[in-house]
Amino acid sequence: MSLLKVSSINDLTDTGGFSLSNGGVTATLPLVVGNIVINGAISGNSGHIIPRQAGNAEKLLQTDGSNLSWVEAAGLAGIRSMNVWTGNGTWNRPSDCTSIMVTAVGAGGGGSGYCEAGGAGGMSQRVIDVTNVTSVSVTVGNPGGGTNYAGCGGNGNSSSFGSYVTGGGGGGSNCIQQHEGGLGGEGIGGTLNVFGGGGNAHGSHHSYGNHAGGASYYGGSQPSSHNQSNYSHRHEGHSAWGAGGNGSQHGNRGASGRQGVVVVHEYYGKPVTADTSYGTSSGNPATSAEEIKIRNPNAGDGVYWINFGGTVRQIYCLMDNRWLGGGWMMGMKATRGTTFNWDSSYWTSNNVLNESQYNTNDGDAKFETMNKFAAKDILGIWPDIGNGGCVPDTNRGWTWFETDFNTGYGRGGRIVPITFWSQVDRFYKSNANEFCGIGQFSGQSHVRFYGFNYRNNPGWARTRWGFGWNENGGGSGGYPEADMNSDDVSGGIGMSGNFGSYSAGDRINCCQNRNGINRSARIELYFR
Predict the structure, then answer these.
(1) What range does the domain containing 261 cover?
(2) Residue 234's CB: how many other CB atoms inside 10 A?
(3) Tell me: the pLDDT tens digits for 35-69?
(4) How far, in Å, CA of 218 to CA of 86, rounded?
């Protein structure tokens, strides 16, 4: 046997070939191969090397920036599962889930005995990044019970997913005023918030079929029948989650509403690295506190840099999930005084006050959030009153909250706060006694206005966000039929001269049927 040792092999033109050294073969020009069979592994640092395909059918190729690997397609994206909660419990995050979409619907209110029907529960829906969430408590509202003729149907209870979203319960019929249908509940905290449908009002035993409870996000109420009788309440379960209870014929009981529901859609996803630098310097300002929360779900309450269309400012932000999911920017704060009373230009003019006081300390300040940020929701914190209100268990004070505050009467969408207060007049939101923040405030038996830019007829009882009251009747006794000429109690934010010209507070002149704090108070306003 002969042995031939060479260091290179060239072609006939001596321009290309192979060099041989230390057991390796290197082509001196690009190597063109018509067919190649490889019986071993391929390795190296080429960007074109693909891992072995055998045994990896229906998988996807994934890179971490350095290496390629095969992964199960289902583990990368798309819906993982759907959970439906019809009772209280706890949602626990699966390890391969990084985001969820939650829909919460409150329970329906109960119907009464002369066709008056209950209102449906409100709906709130939101996509939530749960990368750093372990578990969330789930509360499902119980329905309001039906009642007989002239009775007040029970209110439905709220359904909630932690502090993220709440579907308010529908109102019972025949409660706010005689023979009325129940009001629909309100959605709170979601990207999409929808009121529940209202219930039908008073009818007669000849009003065949005119007994329908309010429809919820998921559908309508129980069936009706000719000469209704007890037909609806015998079929209370034949209705959509959150629907209001039907009214009944005179002498029979109205139907109960339907219980609420919470639906959680889980989505696959691989945890991403949080952007902890966004909004933390003037060189990297955020567009909003909500955007910071999206990029860094663990962001905490504190001061961040916000870019208001080219104007970069430091703003105190509420980011913790207890604040209805976080993402709030301070617009103004007021001490116990008159700086932000009704007549103050700060409500309607493009100006600022003490911008360097971007904190929660006692004082007066107004920020560019009020002037330049198009907001959807508004949150009020009363630091010197006590805990509770619309956002429970915050340990920061009494709370007010209104979602989609610019929605109603042909209006809707995001709006800059000073523009909103410049435009609206008697912007009614609901019966004041049904507002979640009413608990620390005084009241009277009539008018019962809750909303924005209230004014009585003479114009000396005004508030930018709050209540209108009187003890004199007129019409149904509620807004707008009641007498608004001689209001004796006022409360809210941005009050007028006859009631102390308070920046915020509560004031009794006489004739109240409920006693509140009856003094000026501190307030902080936030927007998102």
Answers:
(1) 81-271
(2) 13
(3) 777 777 666 666 566 777 777 776 777 777 777 77
(4) 14
